[in-house]
Specification:
Length: 196
């Protein structure tokens, strides 16, 4: 379980928390939980998501089990820096869809004394590190990796297997297009796809 930083309240710097994992692992659920706790503590909170993510709602960050929190959709990471002024806590969902500038934005915000909580896929459907996520994890003070349950084996899943024949890196989807798989199940599924 993640415990919020409570060591030195006089420190002028903030920090970065990254929540990562496969699809259906509870990343957004954990992001929403942390942000709601901050709101309950009367902290000034703002949540951002990429404007391209309209799967559940245009303006809400929504988890797969329908938990939600109001957010501001932005077209680029640079917009976050402008809109985050005066906040204590910033939440960013689906960070893998932002450009590499998200890393600089998050670090600049943390250096201004803001707690930055970022959620995103750590790997794409090919099993490769996804977009700016590796750099965010490297510069973060806290990294939480969450896991789904493999739909084929019941083991912990950390891969997002794409079930459709689309080779585009960014393809928004749900259970019709993706399923969480364990390492063994993912390896076998990819091997089967290559044999076709």
């Amino acid at each position: 379980m993640f415990l919020e930083n409570t060591v030195n309240h006089k420190e002028q710097f903030g920090w970065i928390e990254v929540i990562c994992g496969s699809m259906f692992s509870g990343k957004t659920e954990e992001l929403i939980r942390r942000l709601k706790r901050a709101k309950f503590a009367k902290q000034r909170v703002e949540i951002f998501k990429p404007a391209i993510d309209t799967r559940y709602h245009d303006e809400m960050v929504v988890s797969h089990d329908a938990n939600e929190i109001r957010s501001t959709p932005v077209p680029a990471a640079a917009n976050i820096a402008i809109l985050a002024q005066g906040c204590d806590v910033i939440g960013i969902d689906e960070a893998q869809f932002f450009d590499d500038e998200i890393v600089t934005v998050c670090n600049d915000l943390a250096n201004q004394g803001i707690r930055v909580i970022v959620a995103g896929l750590d790997m794409d459907f090919k099993g490769n590190p996804f977009g700016p996520m590796p750099a965010l994890m490297a510069t973060a003070e806290y990294v939480t990796k969450v896991h789904a349950v493999c739909t084929r084996t019941g083991n912990l899943a950390n891969y997002s297997f794409r079930k459709t024949d689309n080779d585009k890196l960014v393809m928004l989807g749900e259970t019709e297009e993706y399923e969480p798989l364990s390492r063994a199940a993912y390896y076998n599924a990819m091997k089967k796809n290559q044999e076709k």
